[in-house]
Amino acid sequence: MNSSMHSRRITIAPMLDWTDRHCRHFHRLLAPHAWLYTEMVTTGALLFGDVARHLRFNPSEHPVALQLGGSEPADLARCAQMAEEWGYDEVNLNCGCPSERVQRGAFGACLMNEPQLVAECVVAMCEATKLPVTVKHRIGIDQIEHYDFVHGFVDTVSRAGCSTFIVHARNAWLKGLSPKENREIPPLRYEVAHQLKRDFPQLEILLNGGLATTAAIAEQLQHVDGVMIGREAYNNPWLLAEWERSFCDPAWAPSRDAIIEGMVEYAAQEAREHGTPLRAIVRHILGFANHLPGARSFRRLLSDPNALRDAQPELIREAWALVGARAAEEDLAG
């Protein structure tokens, strides 16, 4: 797949512990044109850890971006080189995660307070790789809500060579809220992302935060270049097929049976080539039958530790059979 033929119109958010390579393969089956992102990988994990475990991915995932967490320009530059060596299509710098662990490492959302440092990181990464270097960030920190703050951040970082900004349209509260609460409590202010696009028309501006319906995505695409969807894409993955058809390929009409067969084949390949246990793969497809008769039985079988202990990929077919013929026949063409 030639990633240059794809825009970032529909992107799937990097989600820690969720968007691993198995999840991304599943999402690719559902949405051939969506841009996929890895979980955030820290520079330390790559420079001092198991590189293959963090960077290995299936060629089917293209276009796929590696999201990095870090704040040392030299370290980020080396990791950007590694991303290119491993065949990624983009390197993304995390300037939006508010967790205390990330703050202790002096990166993530707290980097918004240091736009010049972020600019230095971007320069180093751009010099180290031919891949596009992008930044994901919030619209403010703690009680800082004035537009000049995020405008100044984008202006400074864009001058360093970043032309794509993924804007999570909430403030990040660095104290007092958990990461989960930071995704829910600070109010969404989409108008900030809209204003950024008006002020920087030459930049690619993507909007992230709270998008869950086709209508909501369509509305935002009137104001920005693309959207990034997180929890809704993971929890209700069949929506990805709908979004692919609505915003990328009007002819896209996969059957649910075909998606299931694709995951059976993938699970068999992973078991054969890497010894990957089935449970590591099927945990990502539990929401596939949502809103269909038999969905509860589907989820129950694929999350049963006893059933999964020595299970073969055919267990995915067995679970899908519990959903019933009527559900299996439902697809986007129907």
TrEMBL record:
Annotated DUS-like FMN-binding domain residues: 12-314
Site (Interacts with tRNA): N94, K180, R183, R296, R299
Keywords, alphabetical: Flavoprotein, FMN, NADP, Oxidoreductase, RNA-binding, tRNA processing, tRNA-binding
A Pfam family that the UniProt record links to this protein: Dus
SUPFAM superfamilies referenced in this protein's UniProt entry, alphabetically: FMN-linked oxidoreductases (SSF51395)
Cofactor or coenzyme needed: FMN
InterPro entries (alphabetical): Aldolase_TIM, DUS-like_FMN-bd, DUS_fam, DusA, tRNA_hU_synthase_CS
Catalytic activities: 5,6-dihydrouridine(20a) in tRNA + NADP(+) = uridine(20a) in tRNA + NADPH + H(+); 5,6-dihydrouridine(20) in tRNA + NADP(+) = uridine(20) in tRNA + NADPH + H(+); 5,6-dihydrouridine(20) in tRNA + NAD(+) = uridine(20) in tRNA + NADH + H(+); 5,6-dihydrouridine(20a) in tRNA + NAD(+) = uridine(20a) in tRNA + NADH + H(+)
Binding site for FMN: P14, M15, L16, Q67, K136, H168, N208, G209, G210, G230, R231
An example molecular function term from Gene Ontology annotations: tRNA-dihydrouridine20 synthase activity
Active site: C97 (proton donor)
PROSITE patterns: UPF0034 (PS01136)
Chain's role: Catalyzes the synthesis of 5,6-dihydrouridine (D), a modified base found in the D-loop of most tRNAs, via the reduction of the C5-C6 double bond in target uridines. Specifically modifies U20 and U20a in tRNAs.
HAMAP family: DusA_subfam
Alphabetized PANTHER family for the sequence: FMN-LINKED OXIDOREDUCTASES SUPERFAMILY PROTEIN (PTHR42907)
Name of the molecule in the record: tRNA-dihydrouridine(20/20a) synthase
